[in-house]
Structures are given as structure tokens and as C-alpha cells.
Amino acid sequence: MFRGASAINMDAKGRIAMPARFRDALRNGHDGMLVLTVDINSPCLLIYPLHEWELMETKLMLLSDIDPTERSLKRKLLGYAQECELDSHGRIVVPPILRSFANLDKKTMLVGLLNKFELWEEGAWQLQMEQNHELISNQNLASHPRLSQFTL
Fold first, then answer.
1. Cβ pair 74, 61 in contact under 8 A
2. The pTM is what?
3. Nearest CA to 96 among 13, 38, 2, 25?
4. Residue-level pLDDT at 147
5. Residue 13 zone, left/alpha/beta (φ > 0; ψ -120 to 50; rest)
6. Interval 95-127: pLDDT, tens
7. Farthest CA pair distance, the chain
8. What is the spatial distance between Cα 112 and Cα 80, in angstroms, rounded to a whole number?
């Protein structure tokens, strides 16, 4: 399981080093193979261990090629999907098209979301966190069936 946010610098070749605490799990549990794609709602990338991505592909295969919305979702996620492998230093290369999509330059944030990661441009991540805080603060979580268990 992947959790926590890590500030990571991207080098001039578009490489990021996965935090050391995740490397063994990615190498041992997933053979160091990852799939990068875009997020459908946010200006960030999603990084899936290959086995987790294969579960996503199974769900995508169930979507229609005729329904415009379903086909658009498939086209976006699969069209941007890129396989990559951790190198011997625990780095991955983020392809230029994906760096462009998420506006990634030097300063990035890698965020563990249990079965995958998000990769954000640092400023966009900070803005997203502010928006998340505002959204959560303005909600009555106790009245939300799936969120009520998170109230104190």
C-alpha cells in the first residue's frame, strides 16, 4: 500500500526517483513495472504498478466503444498510458507528452493513494490541497453515508 506525499525533483531528462520506501514493494510485488497515464479530472498523472493497471484495463474493457462518453474515457486513459520500468537507481522516466499534460518541470509531488500514485506539479498540488481542505470543511460528513465514519 502506498501512502504519503513526497517532494521529488525531476531531472532534465524527465526522470524522477521513487522514494526508497516504495522501491522494494514495486520491485518485488510488481517486477518494477509501472504504467503512467493522465488523471481524468485533475492536472496530474497516475502511476500504477503494472498489476494494478491490469485491473483497471479489465474495467476499461467493459466500457462501450459506441457510447461517446465511455469511448472518450477509454481513449484518454489508454491513449496516454505508457509502460515504464524502475531503473537500477529506482528512477522512472516520465515521457514528454505526460510531463506536458501535467505541467511538470523540476518540482513535483508524488502522492501515494493506496494502490497507485499521483504525480503533481508542486504548485498545482498545493492549490489542490487548499481546495480539498475547503471542500471537506464545508461538508457535513456525518450526513454522508460513506464519509460519516471519518468524523471525530
1. no
2. 0.91
3. 13
4. 79
5. alpha
6. 999 999 999 999 999 999 999 999 999 999 999
7. 49
8. 20
